[in-house]
Structure formats: structure tokens, C-alpha cells
Amino acid sequence: MVRELKEVEGIIFKRQKYHDADLLAKIITEKNGIFTMLAHGALKPKSKLGAALLNFSYGTYVVYFSGHGLSTLRTYKNVEQFDGLYDDLIKNAYASFILDLVDHAFMEYQNLGKYYDLTKFALQKIASGTDPEMITQIVQMQLLAAFGVEPELRHCVICGQDQGEFDYSIKNGGILCKKHFYTDPDRMHLKPKEVAVLRTIFLLPFERLGSIKINSSTKKATRKAIDRIYQDTIDINLKTKKFLDELKLMD
Ligand SMILES: [Zn+2]
Predict the structure, then answer these.
(1) Residue 192: helix, strand or coil by DSSP?
(2) 199 CA to centre of ligand 1 in angstroms
(3) Sign of the CA dihedral with 153 first, then 113, 37, and 136 last
(4) Is 63 left (phi over 0), alpha (psi -120 to 50) or beta?
């Protein structure tokens, strides 16, 4: 098989020891998607590759690109780290969950398009001290479409009303206006303010959401709502999510 030598720009997010001193590292890139690189000898003390493959490193990696299965890392250029993501337990946990979630939304080597920018945006925001919970909720809502779930949040799914009070209905795949609450007794029974947050973080471009601030009880309610949307429509069980939930119990 012919392997092409290629420069890719991306973020490292999962590492695993492989054979003797070799390392497997996952990288998320824009055009070449998410794939695993084999780094020969990266775990040897003298290897220069190891430091460029720490979690949350980003930069330009030069790989023998395969297009499926493993690609091989040859060298790297200009690799940096998102400050503080690696050392801070909470930030690390949120960032790991976000990357894990994105990883599950795409096939290997599948072009991520705007979702790469979304991921990078989220990591930058979390690294620079923006509330990681809110950033994570934004990613979760915006990523629904990548999982093939596209809830209607612009207007009532039944009548198209786009003003007034709404509630979220999983059965109907979107929001209901007050007049149509009766069509789903199992609707989420969210407060209007909470639905407004879900709509905002789903509908607005993420670049405009970087400084959104929401009080903690609303944030807790939208967290529960988003978790339920994921459970009932996608149903993936991620260890990184479980860990995050456990951390929150300690709060
Ligand atoms: Zn309606």
C-alpha cells in the first residue's frame, strides 16, 4: 500500500502504549478527521516524539498517511499545549469528555468540517478559564446533528409558533408551544428560561456563545435535559462522561 507523506494540523487526545516503546496516539484534524498514529519508539527516554504526543498537544504533525487503520508519525513541527488543560483535573475532565464525544460522532478519517473548529474553540475557551460546564453544553447541543439527531428548536414542531413559552419533547423531536403541550404528557417540563437556553446554544453559531453566562440552577436543569436528550436519542455510554458526573458529586 502506498502511503503518502502528509502534514496534518491537529490535537492529540488519546494515548496508548503499543509494543515495546511504541505509542499509539489519536489525533483530531480538520480535513483528515480523527485517526490513530503509530509513533515508533516514542516512549524511549531519548525520543523527541513523546513530548509532542501528550494529551491536548496541538500543532503540525508529519505522518505517513494511510487513509484507514493506522498512520505512522514521522516527525512534528511547532507543537504546543493548551495551557492548563493537562494539569487541571476539572478542565482535563471536561476537555476529555468533549474529545471523546466528538470521537464517537465520526468515522475514522471522516472530514469534520465545522466540528473541528467547534472542538478547538471549546478547548481554547476551557483552557482560558471560561466556564467548562457551559462550553460542554454548547458542544453537546451543536454536536447533535453530527450524531444524526436534528431536533427542531426554531419553532413549535406542531404549528410553527416561534414566540412565547416552550417545552422540549423528545417524542416530537423538538419544542412545543404552550398550546401543544398536551400532545406529549412526557415532555420535559422545563422552565421557559431553560428551554430558551437550549434554543440559544443550539441555534446560534458557537463563536457568538463564548461568553454566555447562566445561573447555576438553570445550568443544572439544562445539563439534565441535555443528558436525557442524549440518553433517549443516541444512547452512548462514555467513561469520560461517567467520570465527569462523579466529579460533580464531589462539588
Ligand atoms: Zn404549537
Answers:
(1) helix
(2) 16
(3) negative
(4) beta
Cα of 167 to ligand 1 centre, how many Å? 10
Distance in Å, CA 39 to ligand 1 centroid: 56
Over the stretch 201-228, which tens digit does the pLDDT of each residue have?
A: 999 999 888 788 899 999 999 999 999 9
Span 79-135, pLDDT tens digits? 999 988 989 999 999 999 999 999 999 999 999 999 999 999 999 999 999 999 999
CATH 1.20.1440.120 fits 89-152+186-249, yes or no: yes
The grid cell for 159 is 404549528
What is the architecture, at CATH level 2, of domain 4-81?
A: Beta Barrel (2.40)
Q: Which of 49-53, 65-69, 107-111 has the highest mean pLDDT?
A: 107-111
Q: How far is CA 140 from the centre of its chain?
A: 6
Ranges of H-type helices in 128-215: 132-143, 192-203
- Report d(CA 215, CA 83) in Å as an integer: 26
Expressed in angstroms and rounded, the spacing between residue 158 Cα and the centre of ligand 1 is: 5
Mean pLDDT over each residue of the chain, to the nearest integer? 94
State the distance from the centre of ligand 1 to the C-alpha of 181, rounded, in angstroms: 8
pTM of the full structure: 0.94
Total Cβ atoms within 10 A of residue 65: 17
173 Cα to the center of ligand 1, angstroms: 13
